[in-house]
Amino acid sequence: MKARWLLSFCLVVSLIGGTGRAADTETWVRVDTPHFTLLSDTSEAATVALGTHLERLRAVIAQLVPQTGLKAPVPTRFFVFHDEAAFQPYKLLVGGRPVDDAGYLVRHEHGNYAALVAGQTSSAIRLVYKQYLHFLLQSNFPELPQWLRQGVAELYSTFTSDSAEARIGLPVEDHVFWLRMPGRQLIPLAEFFAMDEAPLGGEEQADFFTQSRALAHYLILGTEEYRREVGGYLIRLINGESPERAIREAFGVDFATLEKELAAYIRQDTFSYVRLPIDDLADVQIESTVMSRAEVLWSLGDLLAHAVPERRAQAEAHFRAALEAEPAHGRASPGRNRPSSEASSSDPCLRRLGHSSASRTV
Questions:
Q1: Do residues 216 and 151 make contact, with C-beta atoms less than 8 angstroms apart?
Q2: Model pTM greater than 0.70?
Q3: Given phi > 0 = left and psi -120 to 50 = alpha, else beta, which region is 67?
Q4: Residue 105: pLDDT above 50?
């Protein structure tokens, strides 16, 4: 009886102020697609639409080098919040303050943890997409140079789709403006291809990012002739050919010629983009379920434990609340999960819970 009273007391203390708005909303749904899990307090239809969109994005990336296939060494979970207030308790922290972004993706050895507010502007969604694309490219094509991974991630971050078609390569106005600024010069390609890392900050970084996207856009989407050769070019780089040889053998030009073509491409009035019929992409198999309160609490605690370790106290409160809501809940039951950093043995609450607030491979 004393132990049960102690557990109840600890739960009350830890949950003062609540576990966060999102955990208290009426309904959360879980949507599973072949390559993603989405947990959402928005409508089921909106969550399914986002899952379908993510699968289409992954499918068009796979078409770059179809003969290799894509793999993901860890799973990716998306947490979708219905508004900014619901997202606030789960935001990243810098210097103890929430980061003013509408979304993020954090890589962890246990998986990728992405969180965003539903219905955000394209720029906010682009940030999350870019982070996922970097993970996908690094996992599958680590041999590719930094400029190309950056360029492809930027290029496909504006991907959109609806029931009829997908659109690849929509321009980013800020990038176009930067490239066309009076006096702005391209980085010479010999120097550009030799850059192992992106410059840190300032105009040099902006030059590198915008030129990476522009060159990837030109090679992948600029002309039908180059588009047909992109897969072979990537294979040459993966096999270790030098940048100059890979360009010459795949596209039949040298650095000087390509540099002139790229400069002319940037100066043109419009940038092309590809419209791909949805029928050209594989059908997406989706399963959807309504989540129990214990599952919601545990999952949000898992997000905090892995993505925002500075919010460890809140993560522990979520795990405790999950046990209170459903003592037999498998994921939150004592002994099933070990913490990433052990809690103090002087904390009677955590000793009674068997350290159940641990992060866990998902």
A1: yes
A2: yes
A3: alpha
A4: yes
